[in-house]
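Reminder to self: tokens first, then the designed residues, so the page reads top to bottom the way the pipeline ran.
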């Protein structure tokens, strides 16, 4: 097992596995039926421990964003967009918006999930404009 693999908490593993399969997975409480992100051991709404993993639609809307104009490292070519995305299922997720002109991004724009490899080869969710 590599050092990177051993640093993944068991509660996060279904999310990571979904990313490797190109599927955005969220936890859903079987008691109050709400979805949550980031992965936790208890429901963030009713504190139940009855959580299941479900595939999300991958669709959402941009709630807020910023255009990063100065790269923080050579691994991140500027400019790029970091956004808060309100998922259809309810949770808010921070990620990058890709495959668009950073100057064209707008609050309220519809986006859909895609997956991009990080510098170490692990896929993570990013979002791109959903023009469907």
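Designed residues (132 positions):
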């Amino acid at each position: 097992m590599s050092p990177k693999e051993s640093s993944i908490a068991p509660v996060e593993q279904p999310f990571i596995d979904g990313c490797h399969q190109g599927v955005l997975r969220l936890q859903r409480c079987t008691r109050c039926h709400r979805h949550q992100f980031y992965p936790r051991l208890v429901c963030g709404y009713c504190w139940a421990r009855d959580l299941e993993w479900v595939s999300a639609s991958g669709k959402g809307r941009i709630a807020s964003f910023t255009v990063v104009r100065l790269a923080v490292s050579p691994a991140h070519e500027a400019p790029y967009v970091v956004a808060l995305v309100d998922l259809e299922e309810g949770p808010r997720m921070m990620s990058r918006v890709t495959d668009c002109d950073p100057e064209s991004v707008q609050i309220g724009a519809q986006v859909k999930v895609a997956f991009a490899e990080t510098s170490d080869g692990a896929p993570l969710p990013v979002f791109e404009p959903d023009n469907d």
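The chain has a mean pLDDT of 94.
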